């Protein structure tokens, strides 16, 4: 049985918190946000997220992503699954291919959380 890493949607999880430079996170907030950051902490997953989010449609097929890495397609799919389970990407199956779409609201919330606002 798969264990859910995130109790709230990613946008809600990161949006629940003030920026780190404004006030400290509670332990509960830190536990909610950590899985999102952990999913992005791997260089392959961070690059995958960047490749998907930077596309004009914020969407990419697995077949579009394979050539960017010296990894097997199952390994790429595993990393995409981790991003999906963390709630950072949505996926749709179209025929034999799976298309991944960045959840830009989740990325924006994480950016606001760890950003450095002027004091």
Which properties best describe this structure?
three-stranded antiparallel β-sheet; elongated; Arc Repressor Mutant, subunit A; disordered N terminus; 3 strands; single chain; alpha+beta
Protein described:
A hairpin with a 2-residue loop joins strand 2 (89-94) and strand 3 (97-102). The N and C termini lie far apart (46 Å). The chain has helices spanning 10-15, 27-40, 43-53, 62-65, 73-85, 104-114, and strands at residues 59-61, 89-94, 97-102. Residues 1-8 have low confidence and may be disordered. The longest helix is centred in the N-terminal third of the chain and has 14 residues, at 27-40. It has six helices and three strands. The protein has a single domain (26-109), classed as Winged helix-like DNA-binding domain superfamily/Winged helix DNA-binding domain (Arc Repressor Mutant, subunit A), CATH 1.10.10.
């Amino acid at each position: 049985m798969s264990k859910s890493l995130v109790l709230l949607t990613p946008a809600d999880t990161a949006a629940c918190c003030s920026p780190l430079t404004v006030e400290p996170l509670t332990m509960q907030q830190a536990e909610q946000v950590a899985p999102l950051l952990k999913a992005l902490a791997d260089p392959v997953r961070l690059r995958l997220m960047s490749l998907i989010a930077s596309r004009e449609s914020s969407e990419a097929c697995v077949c579009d992503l394979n050539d960017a890495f010296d990894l097997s397609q199952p390994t790429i799919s595993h990393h995409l699954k981790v991003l999906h389970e963390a709630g950072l990407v949505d996926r749709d199956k179209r025929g034999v291919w799976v298309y991944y779409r960045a959840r830009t609201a989740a990325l924006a919330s994480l950016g606001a959380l760890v950003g450095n606002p002027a004091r």
